[in-house]
Amino acid sequence: MTNEWWRDAVIYQVYVRSFADSDGDGVGDLPGVRSRLPYLADLGVDAVWLTPFYSSPMADGGYDVADYRSVDPLFGNLNDAACLIGDAHELGLRVIVDIVPNHTSDQHEWFRKDLRDRYVFRPGRGENPPNDWQSVFGGPAWTRTGDGDWYLHLFAPEQPDLNWDNPDVRAEFLDILRFWLDLGVDGFRVDVAHGMVKAEGLPDVGRADQGEMLGTEPLPYFDQDGVHEIYREWRRVLDEYPGDRMAVAEAWAPTEERTALYVRPDELHQAFNFHFLKADWDAADMRSVVERTLATGAPATWVLSNHDVQRHVTRYGGGETGRRRARAAALLMLALPGSAYVYQGEELGLPEVLDLPDEVRRDPKWLRSSHRTAERSEAIEHCERPPASGLTSTEAPARGTSPGASARRREDAGLRPRTAERSEAMDTERSEAIQHSRDGCRVPIPGVSTGPSLGFGDGPGWLPQPEDWAKLSVAEQRSSPESMFSLYRTVLRLRRALPFGDFAWVDLPGDVLGFRRGEFHCVVNFGTSVARLVDPGRVLVASSYYGLDAGEVLLPPDTALWWA
Ligand code: GLC
Ligand code: MG
After folding, report:
1. 3-state SS class at 98
2. For position 434, what pLDDT does the model report?
3. What is the structure's pLDDT at 379?
4. Closest among 269, 374, 344 to 37, alpha carbons compared
5. How much is the pLDDT for 157?
6. Residues 558, 321: contact at Cβ < 8 Å?
7. Most informative mutation of 18, 54, 137, 308 for ligand 1 (most atoms within 8 A of CB)
8. pTM
9. Does residue 136 have its Cβ closer than 6 Å to ligand 1?
């Protein structure tokens, strides 16, 4: 029987490393996730997406997979995965796992055996790389091998891109899909789903600011038409299995129309709506994204945060304002037709952690940022040894090579101080690098208000939590009806029970966005002054306090309301 459960599902993203640590080694793991499944069932989500837990040297937090069919000992073993899936199903939760088809780890058997036809190797242009492509993490997308040829890595050098023109690569991934489907997973989140096929001849982009073009403009290495053939093949495999197995694409495509191509009826089921995630806190912006998305007619998949972007409490202004807006955004997202993804900690209103010490940061995007490059070249200027660099790894993560350490060495050595100008430029670069570094949204989740990692595990977590996170812990919030946690829990319950009808905009004055779905209404005040609306009848839930005055509702700024 088919019920297409994913169409309106709320799916909770577990970043496994940072969710719950069962063995006190500071890293979240599968038994940890398993122990918290009742929490997720009680919160009221329909499914869980687990980020990669496969064998990996962890150059990119597990998105560098060395063996797609085994669990890294850091996270547990295959039996833990099977038990987790079994427990989840008993609790009525579906389980989605990540699949990483654009690249492997450089420690994958194929790369170690130098099977070059399965990767993208090319001769250089003289001493230069084969083309001008830049890595998403910074620097050229090519690394030179000992014999002079270069290999492509759109991400870190430890993540060589696979050659999807090779039928062996295609066959291998069909088999990997089957492996996890046989184990009982309900679906896949497809990493860099827009990446596998590259434009014929690997043409230059012709511009240096490629990082800023991601998801907004065409690029020869992303969103090529050829990827769709791969998904048609994958869909046939998913459809061989009973129980509505599905897949969601992480595809940063330039427009909503291009994103919709990934979810044609014979391809994948969902694609994250990153245009929604990127929209400013602004009525017109939000309305236009929602309008363009719904106009495609494809299934909509809303998302506000994930493990790669700044948490939305902070993105929307931080502090009290950020929290108010995040509460209103939750009501907006969960009222829209389609499915929604909730990133772990979003239900606690966690902000981005912006002040992590440099030496604990692990994100390759930070380690390869231009700030770090500047630090490195300065170190070289002063005849310090640059971090060890081998064939495929430019540096080991945070082992005495942090910028902080290099600054201290500079001072110890009595070297000439930086000029004020240079210092200021480096500070600006540093704060930009921190804005883009992804460790700040990956800090372990606080479960209780005491202990070395606030209930994440028995010891300290792999990233330190800010002191004031004790009051944001699950235990603290559970008992307060006004907490973010209680809001999510209430809203998720209501969403399940409501008989949503057809979507239609309700035009309201000023910066108030309003829409209905049958009898159900949602309004959000994006403006800076209190809006007066005609009393709607029965209010179901409000994101913050609102007033009533002579048959009118007074809706304060950054507040959303549901009524039916
Ligand atoms: C995706 C993941 C991100 C990872 C990258 C490379 O964007 O979400 O965390 O670094 O792919 O695999
Ligand atoms: Mg652990």
Report:
1. strand
2. 79
3. 54
4. 344
5. 98
6. yes
7. 308
8. 0.92
9. no
H or E segment and range at residue 555: strand 552-555
Kindly list the protein residues that place their beta carbon closer than 5 angstroms to ligand 2, a single-atom ion.
21, 23, 25, 27, 29
Q: What confidence score (pLDDT) does residue 418 get? A: 58
pLDDT the model gives residue 212: 85
Atom of ligand 1 nearest to the CA of 137: 10
Residue 123: count other Cβ atoms within 10 Å of its Cβ: 9
Nearest CA to ligand 1 atom 2: 191
pLDDT at 373: 62
Q: Are 142 and 151 in contact (CB under 8 A)?
A: yes
Ligand 1 probe mutation, 155, 158, 310, most atoms within 8 A of CB: 155
CB 146 within 8 A of CB 97: no
Q: How far apart are CA 547 and CA 2, in angstroms?
A: 45
The pLDDT of residue 78: 98
Q: Which of 21, 29, 64, 256 is catalytic?
A: 256
Q: Give the residue, by CA position, lying nearest to ligand 1 atom 3.
A: 308
User: What one-character DSSP code corresponds to residue 172?
Assistant: H
**Do the beta carbons of residue 515 and residue 521 sit within 8 Å?**
yes
In short, whether 191's Cβ falls inside 6 Å of ligand 1 is yes
Counting ligands in written order, which one lies closest to the CA of residue 29?
2
Q: What is the pLDDT of residue 246?
A: 98
Of ligand 1's listed atoms, the one at least distance from the Cα of 156 is 6
In the sheet that 187-190 helps form, which strands lie side by side, from edge to edge? 270-271, 246-249, 187-190, 94-99, 47-50, 10-14, 339-343, 301-303
Q: Which residue has the tokens 């209404």?
A: 521
Does 191 participate in catalysis according to the annotation? yes
Distance from C-alpha of 279 to C-alpha of 288, rounded to nearest angstrom: 9
Atom of ligand 1 nearest to the CA of 63: 12
CB 66 within 8 Å of CB 49: no
Residues of the chain with pLDDT under 70: 1-2, 370-418
Q: What would the pLDDT profile of 128-139 be if each residue is shown by its tens digit?
A: 999 999 999 999
Does 308 contact ligand 1 (Cβ within 6 A)?
yes
Among 64, 191, 223, 308, the active-site one is: 191
Enter the tokens of residue 504: 């239609």
- Percent of residues in the chain assigned helix, strand, coil, to nearest 5: 35, 15, 50
pLDDT for 117 equals 98
Best mutation site among 63, 96, 250, 309 for ligand 1, i.e. most ligand atoms within 8 A of its Cβ? 63
> Which pLDDT value is given to residue 387?
39
If we measure between CA atoms, which residue out of 89, 49, 45, 36 comes closest to residue 474? 36
Residue nearest atom 7 in ligand 1 by C-alpha distance: 192
- Give Rg (Cα) of the chain: 24
Q: Is 4 labeled as catalytic in the residue annotation? A: no
What is the rounded CA–CA span in Å between residue 492 and residue 481?
Answer: 15
pLDDT of residue 388: 36
- What per-residue confidence (pLDDT) applies to 193? 98
What spacing in Å lies between the alpha carbon of 195 and ligand 1's midpoint? 11
439 with 357: CB under 8 angstroms? no
